[in-house]
Amino acid sequence: MTRDLDRWSGDTNGPEELRELLRSARTDVPSAHQLSGLEGKLAGLLDAPVPPAATPVPKPTGFGTPGLAKLAALVAIGGLVGTGVYLGTRSSPEAKSPIPAQTAKQLPAERAPAAPPSAAESEAAQTEPSATAEASSEPSPHAAKAGAKPSEAALLNQAQHALKTDPRRALALTRRHKQLYPQGSLSQEREVIAIEALSRLDKNSSAHERAEEFSEKYPESAHQKKVDTSLKK
Amino acid sequence: MTHSSNKAPDSGPEVPSLRAIFDEYSAFVWRTLRHLGVPERDIEDVCQEVFVVVHRKLESFEGRSTLRTWVYGICLRTASDYRRRAYIRREQPVDELPTTTFEPDQEQSIERSRHRKRLLELLDALDEEKRQVFVLYEIEELEMKDIAEAMGTPLQTAYSRLRAARQILARALGETGAEELEQ
Q1: Which residues of A touch B87 (CB under 8 A)?
Q2: DSSP secondary structure of A55-79
Q3: Among the partner residues A14, A83, A153, nearest to B45 by beta-carbon distance
Q4: Taking 60 as the threshold, does the pLDDT of residue B2 lie above it?
Q5: Fewest C-beta in 10 Å: which of A19, A180, A224, B174?
Q6: Percent of chain A with pLDDT over 90
Q7: How far is A202 from chain B (nearest CA, A)?
């Protein structure tokens, strides 16, 4: 058994400057204000029941291995109950401010090509506003300040918020999410929101097609019940 | 740490509540993401993603590693995923947003910011895998076997990466005899 190496911060072997930096780093924790902000974003989720496990979760695997692809799927497994609460109760100001149009315009050239839209999406796209245009009127203070793209969570948070009052906008936001994060870790959540939005827009055939695609792609998804419920609306 | 009660008896280790995990690990997750290279402006969002994943996977936590190692593993992969989005780096602004801190001692705060900036500059010299090992070992003080577990790599690989990381950093600091440091 290999004995752990002495840590640099605790002995005299490491470079002196780095020892000091490492000691400082260990006490460099976020402020109460920062943690409070994070807690606010997770409100609802923190005290939500643990979603049932749909599949066993493997031990963590190395990066760049097939484990990463598995993670993307596993990440999305869980109850939308929890996610819905989480998305629906986020207090982030990101839900209220907009993505700079400049960022949206830059995206097509900079991102990898998104998957071609499904038939359901194509039909929906005929009546929904442009995803980028919609997202441009949405957004994140981070994006506004930094010119960076919105996070997955921020986009879906906005979509979730819009679902009941403006399903068309919710749908546009899910399309934008798909463009920005074609392999995103919240892909299942995106699809669930999109299906409900289509259903609310009375695009039942599109909703059903997309729901079928969802079921095929995520046969063990814990979100399936939610998808079924959405179709009945 | 409080535990959730919705775990069936004899179905595995008792699962702590997300609230309990948040209370215990949120500061560490935040700190780790920072040292893994997530910019200050995005740490809160990436932290959020970490805990969403923890929530989803919590029920299937099998206790094959410690909860701490498990959470760190999720943290590593979430940060890695974030960094992999190449165009984020292209869109990254030159200026970082200032960190809002409320430390009573302004001088201490300035010193801390200076240290943080310098350390992050140094860590940027490491590739992702070496950086992960170095951060978890030297800052988070995990045992090497736990780091290997969190990364899904053989123990010796983790050791090799740590040694390589140390060598690179020693050189970056202009230390003479960097190789000897590894003996």
Answers
A1: 107, 110-111, 149
A2: SPPPPP--TTSHHHHHHHHHHT-S-
A3: A153
A4: no
A5: B174
A6: 9
A7: 31
Q: What distance in Å separates the CA atoms of residue A226 and residue B1, rounded to the nearest whole number?
A: 32
**In chain B, what is the greatest distance between 2 CA atoms, to the nearest angstrom?**
58
Cβ atoms within 10 Å, residue B115 = 19
Q: Are A206 and A196 in contact (CB under 8 A)?
A: no
Query: Same domain, yes or no, for B12 and B73?
Result: yes
Q: Does A17 touch chain B (CB under 8 A)?
A: yes
Q: Find, among B160, B161, B180, the residue nearest to B170 by Cα.
A: B180
Contact assignment for A185 to B44 by CB distance below 8 Å: no
CA-CA distance, B4 to B18, in Å (whole number)? 8
Lowest mean pLDDT, pick from A218-222, B53-57, B78-82: A218-222
| Phi-psi category of residue B173: left, alpha or beta, with phi > 0 → left and psi -120 to 50 → alpha | alpha
- pLDDT score, position A24: 85
Residue B154: CB atoms within 10 Å: 11
Q: Roughly how many angstroms between the first and final C-alpha of chain A, as a whole number?
A: 60
ipTM score of complex: 0.80
Q: Each residue of B124-164: pLDDT tens digit?
A: 999 999 999 999 999 998 999 999 999 999 999 999 999 99
Q: Which residues pair with B87 in a beta bridge?
A: none
What is the span of the domain harbouring residue B167?
108-183
Q: Which residue has the higher pLDDT, A12 or A1?
A: A12
Domains of chain A: 79-233 (1.25.40)
CATH of the domain at B151: 1.10.10.10
End-to-end Cα separation, chain B, in angstroms: 41
Identify the residue whose tokens are 């890695």.
B80
